[in-house]
Write a structure and sequence with these properties.
The chain is an alpha+beta fold. It folds into 3 domains: 132 residues, Roll (Mannose-Binding Protein A, Chain A); 111 residues, Roll (Mannose-Binding Protein A, Chain A); 116 residues, no CATH class. 16% of the residues lie in helices and 30% in strands. The chain has 7 helices and 22 strands. Strands 16, 17, 18, 19, 20, 21 and 22 form a 7-stranded mixed sheet that branches. A 4-stranded antiparallel sheet has the order 12-3-13-14, covered by helices on one side. The protein is globular.
Length: 373
């Protein structure tokens, strides 16, 4: 039972330090300066790394922009559009997942322009908070998020922009277009003017590794061209890293990524999971920020249990939650503050819903996430 400081120290891999060890990124990027078609690049990345790069947020974009490409102006990324892909709804803000059961469409919507040639792939909202699909090139006022705490502006900009330019403005000046049913239906929004854009869009693009990340960073001049099928996406090395699409048969350099975490689909107690990770990989995973959380929550969707173990445990005598990697527990996403009434508990992430953290008894058996480095 975890009832003593000795037990607490037993599970820490490293000696105590004044500062926690630097946390390696959960995924790493590699620029490959070889000209290949998109499919050849995908095969190369899967053989030597994990896959063609998946881009999840603006921090990833800054990492890509800093990749050395002295004699090249662009490179393939892991985004592809095929005729057989169905259009799927996404929220613009990374980490907010679209739930078909929690929508607020106006009567008869979405109409998709009567299935004409020009599709309606973006969404604006009327005075009653009802959603209507519209062409993404249409110009509307719009609503932005401000910060990770999902603060909603109680006023917005009397500037008309296309959906993509509105998204770009929000990302540059604030965080993103307002996203998620909970935030869009907030009472403060009702006080605002009619027909603002919200962060809901749909497209047919898919990531090579099968992940469902909604982040897009298209060139603002692409307009609706990025909906052309049988195309692949590349990033430009021009300071902004905006994406353009092109025939996948063109030969270009490309960017791979290495995944530093792995989901183990075996049911083990927390202690057994810890020893497994340390024997076969590195450690149970540590989550230090929202970007880590988003990466891990994509992994846990494939789990066979309702929860997955993380490297988060509770020292009873110290009344303290700790990461077994020695990282300080700063970032938290508990479903509710866990009561400290049980010494034999550790932290697990739910594999569905909002992927929040829950305390669970150490003896319960779940899948788990290991870090590789």
């Amino acid at each position: 039972m975890k009832v003593s400081l000795v037990y607490f120290l037993h599970f820490l891999r490293h000696d105590f330090q004044c500062f926690p060890p630097s946390q390696l990124p959960l995924y790493e990027f590699h620029y490959i300066n070889e000209n290949k078609t998109w499919t050849e690049a995908q095969q190369y990345c899967r053989e030597k790394h994990t896959d063609l790069v998946t881009v999840t947020n603006m921090k990833d974009m800054k990492r890509l922009i800093n990749i050395s490409a002295e004699d090249q102006s662009e490179a393939w990324i892991g985004l592809i559009n095929k005729p057989e892909f169905n259009r799927t709804w996404f929220w613009s803000l990374p980490g907010v997942e679209f739930d078909e059961s929690e929508t607020n469409w106006a009567a008869g919507e979405p109409t998709d322009n009567g299935n004409q040639l020009i599709h309606e792939n973006c969404v604006h909202m009327n005075k009653n908070l009802k959603w209507t699909d519209t062409g993404c090139l249409n110009q509307h006022i719009f609503l932005c998020y401000d910060g990770e705490n999902v603060h909603i502006f109680n006023s917005y900009f009397y500037v008309l922009k296309s959906w993509q330019k509105a998204q770009s403005y929000c990302r540059e000046k604030h965080t993103d277009l307002i996203s998620g049913t909970k935030q869009v239906l907030d009472g403060e929004v009702e006080k605002l003017m009619d027909q603002p854009y919200i962060g809901l869009f749909r497209d047919t693009w898919r990531w090579s590794d099968g992940s469902s990340f909604s982040f897009r960073h298209w060139n603002l001049q692409c307009n609706d061209e990025q909906y052309i099928s049988d195309q692949c996406a590349m990033t430009k090395f021009d300071g902004e890293g905006r994406w353009t699409n092109m025939s996948c048969d063109n030969e270009k350099p490309f960017i791979c990524y290495d995944d530093n975490v792995i989901l183990i689909k075996e049911n083990k107690t927390w202690e057994d999971a810890l020893y497994y990770c340390r024997d076969h990989h590195h450690d149970l995973v540590t989550i230090t920020n929202m970007d880590d959380q988003r990466w891990i929550q994509e992994k846990v969707k494939e789990a066979s249990t309702d929860y997955v173990w993380m490297g988060l445990s509770y020292a009873c005598t110290l009344d303290l939650w700790f990461w077994v990697s020695d990282e300080v527990v700063r970032y938290k996403t508990w479903a509710s503050n866990p009561p400290m009434d049980d010494c034999d508990m550790s932290g697990a992430m739910e594999t569905g819903g909002e992927h929040q953290w829950f305390k669970r008894n150490d003896a319960e058996k779940f899948n788990f996430i290991c870090s590789k480095k």
